[in-house]
Amino acid sequence: MTQIQKYFRNSFRSLLSSKNRKKPDFQSKLENANQDVSENRYSVLYLLNGHYHHVGCSSQEEAQSVQGSLMTDGNRIPVGIYDVVTDAFEWEIIGQYFHSQDSASEQRERLEEVLTMSRTLRRRDSSWEPGVLQRPGLFA
Question: How far are the Cα atoms of 72, 91, 111, 138 from residue 64, in angstroms, in the given order?
């Protein structure tokens, strides 16, 4: 089992265990509101002409749809989806297969590379309002 799979399994378990604990009513309402309205929570990372780019999406479904449309684009190569809240990266399906074939150290290096790139692109394109991505300028 790969390191990424273990990470996601442990994250999922901790999520389930945290859902089972009873939270104060006002706290759970606040968390639900933050999850529902997290604008540009996800970044779809892709390669174009050898350079990383991203598209901000507010829901996982929207991010998966954008990633699917990138798969049919002949110029852009989808890499995966970055979630800013959990600071996790989900590889595109073909990339996941090739990623799983690498050694554990290569997997960690590649994961760290895409996480760093995703964070850097989000920081570069963020506006003064936290959580809102702007379109990069023509010369960005």
Answer: 13, 11, 19, 26
Q: What is the structure's pLDDT at 46?
A: 93
Q: pTM for this structure?
A: 0.63
Condensed to tens digits (0 to 9), the pLDDT of residues 46-68 reads: 999 989 999 999 999 999 999 99
Report in angstroms the alpha-carbon separations of 12 from 30, 70, 114: 21, 27, 21
Angle between helices 104-125 and 3-20 (to 10 degrees): 60
